[in-house]
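Final report, closing paragraph on structural work. Over the funding period we assembled a curated collection of sequence-structure pairs, and we close with a single example.
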Amino acid sequence: MKTHSPTTTDRFGLVRPAIEAHTLGITSVEQILRDCGYTVVVGDAPTCEAFNRPEDPRHLAAIERWLRDNRITILGFSYRLDPRQGATLFERLIHQLKARRLLAEQGGFLKAVYFAGLPKACALVQQRVPEVAGVFRGDETPMETLAMLAIRPDTMPRNLAEGASYDQARLSFGRDLIQKGDYLQVQPVDRSSCGEFGTRRDTLVRRVEHATTRQLPPLMRAHVGPYLADRAQAVSLFLEWTGQLARSGLLDILSIGTSQLTQSAFGEDWNGKPNGGGVPINSPTEFAAVWQAARPMLVRTYAGTTHIPKLARMYEETLHMAWHALSLWWFCRMDGRGPYSVQENLEHHLETIRYVASVGKPFEPNVPHHFAFRGADDVTAVVSVVLAARAAKHHGIRHLVLQNMLNTPRSTWGVQDLAKSRAMLQLVRELEDDSFHLILQPRAGLDYFSPDLAKAKAQLAAVTALMDDIEPQNPDSPPVIHVVSYSEASHLADPPVVDQSIQITRHALAEYRRLRAKGDVDDMTGHPEVAQRTHELLQDARAVLAAIETCVPSPCSPEGLYRILAGGFLAVPYLWECREEFQRAIRWPTRLIRGSVKVVDPQGNPLPAATRMEMVLDDLRLPAQRTP
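Its predicted structure, as stored:
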């Protein structure tokens, strides 16, 4: 089936089988098409159920009825689970559509049928199903999506085109940079004049201050952790990798990607227990060996999910941690990552934070993206990190590492990411004083990168440009970059991949700044849409924070933080576990709107935070109070 160039009379139908729960990709394409003026019908629950088994005569009849009743002329089918199952299911669907003579080439009304799935599924579909008009792997930009659907970019409304143009310009910058290959000439930064460099007394704060004073590039942090079935071989390989990274000198901060068993059952007998990936370190001696092999890098690792304060102490003794990271509400029963209830988890985490404060180390609230993973709106992401920062300061932390995961969800527009980042920074910086300081650490999104390595390298350069546009007039921002390796969607990053990812990041940062100084790329400092959205996020976040202050006693305590989540102040509609316990949190539906995630009412319209807070307060049987 050839690609069909849609007209205003065409109607798009977007559907997934009921066994496939992923809806964000469908929502993203739906938004783009609606913004371009097309009619879009998304399959409801009974329709999705029918697409589970299109070969069943009753299901096929329901599918045909849905297509005809909604006058669908272009069909998009999404399946992002097992690649072989997805390709086979789509193949069966096409076979049944042909049997009913519904395709245009047979005289039917379906002018084009598209498939969206994992890269392997897309490859199988292209091999087996010649009728498919195109496949979507999930890494497409809005402009690429339009091109694949044969829709002219000039049909996009102005605001959508402007939002897409910023992202497209950065990706073009990335492609040019990778094609030239100059990034391969990037050399290590000499930081050896930093006091206590590479010793047990070396600290993140010293390194940041040294880089700022000497006008050196940002510190580079990367996450590394091979897994092999044989535990001893895996630890040995990791020590070898650590030595390689230390000798090459490009990486400043080694973040150990430990296994789930390291986090949950450290020091226990693991015989017969599933590991779950990551390097399976299981003794203080092995951690100490990592620190020694990593000289002169700073080192840090995941927090435990059991015995959390005890493990933090052990990490300090063996790794001399660059900083500690905890997720407060997360890595417990609520996300299946640990055995504790949310209340117990908060108690353990705050106890650990007090310990971290007592030894003078920085703390990273590993928080906002975990809410975003479960469908939270942008306001919830901002508020959650402010609450975590307030709790950290309250319990004695002096230096806060603000990790900001961009591209989360993947469909987020760059201008929206900038607004979210600036709102986070402004609200957290309001807490700064002589005893509390912020260290910004942006990173790319967990599922941002394409499995196509050439495109992924360009994306890494593009997201580096986005990081620099958060505070484009501040040459010292960001002071730390969490480099996500370009192979993230393809394969585990080994030392050569980690080093090359750092080279791309550092060269992209320098080159983007050079081009901005020449006026060859836009200065995003006063971008009107970013400014307007930042103002909106600040206003909405303050409304939520004011409502919390109204009715939650001791919001920095475990009980207070628990009540904030249980009370519905934070929107988490796609929570997987503990849904009954946190029914007030899951009650708020969200949707992607112009590249941002917003809470919506039953009609799908954005619900202002102030209005939502009135509903929360009323639900808690407290007098509703409007925030100014």
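The chain has three domains: 11-156, 170-512, 541-619. The radius of gyration is 25 Å. We thank the funder for supporting this effort.
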